[in-house]
């Protein structure tokens, strides 16, 4: 495991992170000089269909070397910025709460240093750990959520800490009207009923995103941005645990990412790549490009 963070290592009150051995391409600056800090959460113990997302973060890191650091879409280069890759956490696969506590602790260290945490999953439940930490710092936090699935079940098979319930748990932290969902095209009837009363759900597409961004940006509202990669159509991104037909294209996602980056993003994540479910490697390549473009949009 690339768990290179020693939580007991301190300089006075300050915890120290050391450089990971293998970094996402272009993300090899020091912790101290970086504005964004990447960390992986290889956890998929509540996956309800096809497992494998625990391997997503390490695959993205390794396969990123098939990418250029330069984005012709944004005319930006990662080499011109400072990003630190702190590697993957070593998480307990047998305990959701233990894993979430570790993710929250890593996020907290990054926030305490005045940097933006960028989590790479893993299944979508891992987002809850980061949201817990970010919500403690930003009491008026909003979430912008891209996904095929509503993730609003109160429980799934008797368990409340599941990737099928992550946005319901986030709603318990934030309250009504502060979770904005886009591309949603799957869920049970009760999830959509709950959304109609408690979240700002936009089904099937990014319709309404521009207006939302303009409002949140004008008010300088802190935003946590979570991207479940299965918002993409499975013809573009088949390597995920629960693919859903009818998703968006890569270019639609890219334009949406650039829009959200206009808001005051204070934390973000990308999740649900299961690399072995697409032996062509195309899904991993797409995930790497999404991560690159997300970072550059926020820098």
Structural description of this entry:
The protein has 299 residues and is of the alpha/beta class. The protein has one domain (5-298): Arginase, Chain A (3-Layer(aba) Sandwich). It has 8 helices and 12 strands. The chain has helices at residues 56-63, 96-112, 126-137, 166-174, 189-198, 209-218, 250-260, 282-298; strands spanning 5-11, 14-17, 36-41, 70-71, 76-77, 83-88, 116-121, 142-146, 179-184, 200-203, 222-228, 264-271. The strands form 3 sheets. Strands 6-3-7-12-11-8-9-10 form an 8-stranded parallel sheet, with helices on both faces. Strands 1-2 form a two-stranded antiparallel ribbon. α2 crosses α3 (126-137). The relative contact order is 0.17.
- The helix count comes to 8
| Known CATH architecture | 3-Layer(aba) Sandwich
Number of separate strands: 12
Percent of residues in helices comes to 25-40%
Can you summarize the main beta sheet? Answer: 8 strands, parallel
- CATH homologous superfamily, by name? Ureohydrolase domain
Principal-axes shape call: globular
Major β-sheet strand ordering: 6-3-7-12-11-8-9-10
How large is the share of residues in beta strands?
15-25%
Overall number of structural domains:
1
Distance between the termini: 28 Å
Mean pLDDT over all positions:
94
Low-confidence stretches: 1-11
The CATH topology annotation reads as Arginase, Chain A
